[in-house]
UniProtKB/TrEMBL annotation:
GO terms for MF: methyltransferase activity
PROSITE patterns, per the entry: SAM_OMT_II (PS51683)
All residue ranges annotated as the O-methyltransferase dimerisation domain in the record: 9-84
Name the record gives this protein: Methyltransferase
Gene Ontology process terms (BP): methylation
Domain O-methyltransferase C-terminal: 107-317
KW Nucleotidyltransferase (keyword) present: no
Keywords recorded for this protein, A-Z: Methyltransferase, S-adenosyl-L-methionine, Transferase
Keyword S-adenosyl-L-methionine found: yes
Pfam (any one): Dimerisation
SUPFAM superfamilies: S-adenosyl-L-methionine-dependent methyltransferases, Winged helix' DNA-binding domain
Lineage of the organism: Bacteria, Bacillati, Actinomycetota, Actinomycetes, Kitasatosporales
InterPro entries: COMT-like (IPR016461), COMT_C (IPR001077), COMT_dimerisation (IPR012967), SAM-dependent_MTases_sf (IPR029063), WH-like_DNA-bd_sf (IPR036388), WH_DNA-bd_sf (IPR036390)
Length: 339
């Protein structure tokens, strides 16, 4: 029975994701709130049919995102509260992005990608993922917001998990809106910083720096890490970037970092590291699904320690160490120095 239940739960997985999407679009978490509230009242505020809303709320309770206190009376759980945009750890944009049709449609062709090894997204949409974002500004803004929400946990942990005090300047390669680097600079007042990303990737970065009072210590560089990386730092930070790209493209990015790395400098990669064999935990499940997402939508991959050592070696770097990032699993700190 347990085996059948597992298969049934997995088969319903896409339905659970769309239930999340509906909850975010209908503002369920913020309308329900912490105090028990009736389904009819929630429906009235959301502008929905009452019985259908009650059914949605029960489904969300079944998923652990709401608690039902009595017939048709609900409040949000700690997890459900993360679906409210006003929550300090909100994941609303993250949910919107990873349930977005532009992400999901290519997954319908996963079997084709497995057969061919090719990216399904490009075939479905006629262009690559990041070019598609550039052509759709609203989707690009949602992607940037999702990445900012996704990195928030790491931004809270990383500054205290690595000895940034040994360095004077850090460049965040592909740093998006600067959330991660803001966390690092906020905890280490002796550091200066640079955020490198495309113009669309940097769209919200100036607001981030202003919010944290870092405009005087951090500069923004619009550029392409496939062409060059700005010189002047002794630490180059790369989080959740390399898994987007093929090995050859990763070698290009790392080579550009190596070319500007001063004596004593370091490249710090923050990504999951696949174990030698599958460890069937919740974090592992997400990592392996992320690996397939890279196959289907981007052409990149999640990598093992041996994989990282190989691309580093090709770029003129030596892998120095791999350390799990406690409290931000499944991420690891991958340190690489000039070979």
């Amino acid at each position: 029975m347990a085996d059948r239940d597992l298969i049934a739960r997995l088969a319903f997985g896409s339905m659970a994701a769309q239930t999340l999407r509906a909850a975010v679009r209908l503002r369920v978490a913020e309308l329900v709130g912490d105090t028990p509230r009736g389904a009819a009242a929630v429906a009235a505020d959301a502008g929905t049919e009452p019985q259908a809303m009650a059914r949605l709320l029960r489904a969300l309770a079944g998923l652990g995102l709401l608690k039902e206190h009595g017939p048709d009376s609900f409040s949000v759980t700690a997890a459900g509260a993360l679906l409210a945009p006003g929550h300090p750890e909100s994941l609303t944009s993250f949910v919107r992005m990873f349930t977005e049709p532009a992400i999901i449609r290519a997954w319908e062709h996963l079997d084709d990608s497995v057969r061919s090894g090719e990216v399904a997204f490009d075939t479905v949409f006629g262009t690559d993922f990041f070019s598609h974002l550039a052509q759709h500004p609203e989707l690009s803004a949602e992607f940037n917001a999702a990445m900012s929400q996704a990195v928030a946990e790491t931004a809270a942990v990383l500054p205290y998990a690595f000895d940034f005090g040994k360095f004077s300047s850090v460049t965040d390669v592909g740093g998006g809106d600067g959330t991660l680097l803001a966390g690092v600079l906020g905890a280490h007042p002796g550091l200066s910083g640079v955020v490198l990303d495309t113009e669309q990737g940097l769209a919200g970065a100036s607001r981030t720096l202003e919010r944290y009072g870092l405009t005087g210590r951090c500069s923004l560089v619009a550029g392409d890490f496939f062409r060059s990386v700005p010189e002047g730092s002794d630490l180059y930070l790369i989080k959740s970037v390399l898994h987007d790209w093929s090995d050859d493209q990763v070698v290009t990015i790392l080579t550009h970092c190596r070319q500007v790395l001063p004596p004593g400098g370091l490249v710090l990669i923050v990504e999951p590291v696949l174990p030698e064999s599958v460890d069937a935990t919740a974090d592992a499940e997400i990592t392996y699904l992320s690996d397939l997402n890279m196959l289907v939508n981007l052409g990149g991959r999640e990598r093992s320690r041996a994989d990282f050592a190989k691309v580093c070696r090709r770029a003129g770097l030596a892998l120095k160490s791999v350390t799990p990032l406690a409290e931000a699993e499944p991420f690891c700190l991958i340190e690489a120095v000039a070979d």
